[in-house]
Every structure is written in C-alpha cells, then in structure tokens.
Here is the input.
Amino acid sequence: MSEREKSHLFYQSRRRRPQLDRARGVYMWDVDGKRYLDGSSGAMVCNIGHSNERVLEAMRRQMEKSTFGYRLHFETEPAENLARLTAQRAPEGLEKVFFVSGGSEAVESAIKLARQYAIAVGEAQRTKVISRQPSYHGCTLGALALTGYAPLTAPFDPMMRPMPKIPAPRAYLDGLNPNDPATGHHYADMLEARIREEGPETVLAFMVEPIGGASTGALVPPAGYMQRVREICDRYGVLLIHDEVMCGGGRTGRFFAAEHYDVAPDILVVSKGFAAGYAPLGAMVAHDRIVEPVLDGGGFLHGFTYAGNPLACAAGLAVLEEIETEKLCENAASVGALLKSRLVELMGRHPLIGDVRGQGLLLAFELVADKRTLAPLPRELNAYDKLVEHAYDEGLILYSRRTRGGYEGDHFLVCPPMITTPEQVDEIMDGLERALGRFLAEAAPHLPRAA
Ligand code: PLP
Here is the structure.
C-alpha cells in the first residue's frame, strides 16, 4: 500500500479526493493537472478567489512582524484595525468586535454573550434560544443545539439541552407568495407564538440566518419577515442574533445581509468569507448596550486561544480591502443576477429543477420529482451526492444538502467566488448541464414519473 493509500487523516467518511496542487482565482488544480472551477468557493468561503497576490503579500508582511500575540498579553494593530473597519460596516450600534477562528466558535460566543447579558441586567431566567427548522449554526454542542438538521443532530440530542425551533419561511413549499408582506408576517408570527408558548420571560434570543445557507439552500426571507422578527424580539425583550457566517462577507451583494432589510440585530456573527479562506477567522459583532453591562459585571467569561490572531486579522483586513477596491459586492450582485437568470432559464427546460433561489452569489437550486407539487426525489436516489460527483468529474465543484428534514429535498448551492466573470458563468452552466444530463440518464429509470 502506498503512503497516499494508507492516509492517517480522517474526516466524515472514507471517501478520498485528489490531492490539491494549487489554486488561483476561481480555479483549482489537482496534482494530476486536472482543473476544477470552484463553483461553491469551497464551503462558501473563498469569496475573493484563491491565491490573491495582494492578500498573500499583506500576510507575508505581517508574518515578518509577528504571527501570534496572545490577547491577554498584547494588543495588535491588525486586530484593532479590523475590529474598527468591521464595526464601521456593521449595522448601527454594533460597535464591539470579538474575534474567533470559525463559525461555530462565533455562534457559541454569541449565545454566551447573550446569556451573560441577561444575567447582568437581572434577567437570569432567560435561557432559551429559539432558532429555525431547518438551520445550521455549527457543529459544537451549543451551536448544534440550535441547528435544525436531524442527520447531524440526532445522535447528540440526548447530550444537549433541547432548544425551541420554528419553521423557516419556505414560502415556495407552502404555496405562498414571497413578495407579499402577509407571507413574511405569517412566518414571523410563528416566532411570537413560540415565545409566548415558552414563556417570554424564559426566552433569551432568536438566532436566524437573514439569507439562508447550507440547510435551507439560500432561502431568501419573504417580504416583511426580517422587519417583523425585529419588532417581535423588541416586544418581548428577546435578543436578535444574525448568523451571517455564510451570508456575511459580501456574497449577497452587501457586506452584511442585514443591510438588505434595514434591520439591525443585537449581535451578529460572521466567518467563512470574512478572511475568505486565507486564514481561520470569524467575529462576533455586538451592540455596545449588550457588551458594556457584561464588562461592568466582571467580564465576558469566554475566549479562544487564537482569538485576534494577528496573521488571521491581517488576512481579514486585506480581504476587506480587496472587496472594496475591486467592488466585489457589486460584482456579486450583477454576476449573481446573471447566474440566477441562467439557472431559472435552465429550470424552465429541465424536468427535475423545481426551484431556484438566493441572492447575489449565494444561490441554490432544488431537484424535485414533480415540478407541479414539488414532491422531492426519492431519497434512495441520493441526488444530493450523485449530482455533486458528476459535476466533480466534469471539473465543477458544487455543494449540496437536503433541505426537507435533512433526509430529502436535494438542493445544490452554486456559489462561485465574487470575482466570477460572465464567461465563467457560461462555464459553470455548461459543466452543470453536463452533470445534470449524466444524473438524469442514471436516475430516469428510478423516477416515479418518466422524466
Ligand atoms: N453558521 C452557519 C450559517 C454556517 O453555514 C456554518 C458553517 O457552514 C457555521 C455556522 C459553522 O461554521 P464553522 O464550520 O466555521 O464552524
């Protein structure tokens, strides 16, 4: 057995992948020279594309100075500057930034800050964090308790404190008009009902992805939803936490997705695109009103060793600069609109695409067995896995999950980097059509109706 065959590494499964040689822009090459278009920016991470020379240079410069300064021993210039620029871009009042190394850490931090805030203001009975079904907020036990995705949570349920869930506003499945504010209110009012059912005095926070990511497949909330959610949280003294781990960082066309709705949360978390894969980095951004009582009350009892790592923060700063000087949010909006229109056009002539959704370059499509009823494909077909494999063979990387209970409702995120050009949209669509053709040929005999 060769060294490569007997790997000591393990992740989710035994599936092996080719070894990565290099990556540049939207492309990646394996050691055999095969080229892939990174149609999902990794896991919606590499927002500015791979191996950006200006970011690498900024990191090199920082590396020559210091790569680590423990937060209890030193302040560092990159962390200070990135905190300032992040707060400037965050919704009104979110002035305080707490750095972490990833999304789950950011979510854990937000839950714990919310809890300490409640204690500090004399509301220690508030312990419940409401979230949505489906949702994904991370894999650590605190974040997992907020995650509504049974395949990932079920084995750990007995070890976690159950947290209340309300349905995500999937108007397309319920046959409701997403552009009608009555639809947004209908779903937001489920939050109010749940708060009342739980006992408002026991509810600490509501955690929500303003624009959905992996679990819902880029679900855009119906008109009026986010604004009504804010009103309800205010009415019951419940903190509103935006999980912008995936939708933050620019790919929806705005640096923070909150901007689309003109609603300010009390706490916001961001990661993935924040340092765009150049370093592990995330942040919790919180309102002064939340942080000050906690610091006054003895301090925030929380922190990770790598917090505010100067190299990671230098990468984050350079990524932010790149997004702004190259107008990448604007590009995400315009190229995203083009890509979405191409996916919608494909849906019109493809027998299995039942929905296309998302905003900017956070886009997804869902495969169905019946386009009229949106009945899901038979779960045994494992479309979410098969189509990704066909695309991978075709040199196109996609990201998939199952949106209906986690066991069916195969959806596919098409989220290339924010530097994607219209020509690369053609390339993505060509690869996708070839992959879909292969999948359809294989699946057709097993479909309930002739496709
Ligand atoms: N929150 C959301 C919305 C995510 O999409 C993810 C990861 O996909 C996380 C939290 C967890 O982030 P991480 O995998 O960096 O811990």
Observations:
- The mean pLDDT is 96.
